[in-house]
Amino acid sequence: MTHVIVVGGGPAGLSAALFAEKNGLETTVFDTDKTWMHKAHLFNYPGVGSQDGTAFLDTLHTQVDSFGVDRKQGEEVTDVTEAGDGFAVTTEAGEYEAPYVVLATGANRDLAESLGCELTDEGVVDADVTMETSVENAYATGAMVRAEEWQAVISAGDGAAAALNILSKEKGEHYHDFDVPADAESTFGGMVDEA
Q1: Bridge partners of 42?
Q2: Measured between alpha carbons, how far is 183 from 168 in angstroms, rounded to an integer?
Q3: Which one, 27, 35, 89, 98, has the greatest CB density within 10 A?
């Protein structure tokens, strides 16, 4: 069973998917590949000196895939509703359910509005520091929650915050995703540097 459904495949959505799946929550991400990152070149993302946005996304795709995220590439979400103890996500291919949903659809707030998430006076989705909206267990990230403050690194942090809050709820205590060199084993192409 999928624990977390992520709608959106930019830095926010892929970050949320990575953190959730890496820490034991089965995650499905719906990625139409319409992110602004395809128009970007990164000079201001920590750890990335200079990289084309599409190449950056390719790296993120490889990373989430290596951890086992179920990535529904090209499958567009048309509706998100509350269902039972979670959410039903509708696509052209069918309906999926999960107890948590992370919305990462850039400045498009339509799904959040139809789900009943409150908006601020600025017209952005109202979310707390954990990225949880007024709808319990529904999260909004990135440009959805920020008026004109759109940066890949901020969005990735928002996705991570959402996933960590979900993990904290599931584990019943504050959860931290922190690996140390002595026990860090990467499934991401064996890319662990040994100094």
Answers
A1: 51
A2: 22
A3: 27
Q: Which has the closest alpha carbon to 25: 137, 157, 127, 108? A: 137
Domain positions in the chain: 4-171
For domain 4-171, the CATH class is alpha beta
Higher pLDDT, 191 or 47: 47
pTM of the predicted model as reported, rounded to 2 decimal places: 0.89
Using an 8 Å Cβ cutoff, are 68 and 88 in contact?
no
Tens-place pLDDT, residues 124-144: 999 999 999 999 999 999 999
Given a cut of 70, whether residue 179 has pLDDT beyond it is yes
Residue 110 CA to residue 116 CA, distance in Å, equals 10
Question: What's 84's DSSP letter?
Answer: T
Is residue 2 a contact partner of residue 96, using CB atoms and an 8 Å limit?
yes
Q: Which two tokens stand for residue 49?
A: 């000196």
| Nearest CA-CA partner of 42 in 151, 147, 188, 144 | 151
For the stretch 53-76, what's the b/e string if a residue is b when 16 or more beta carbons lie within 10 angstroms of its beta carbon?
beebbeebbebbebbebbbbeebe
State how far the Cα of 119 lies from the Cα of 109, in Å rounded to an integer.
9
Structure tokens belonging to residue 31: 């990625």
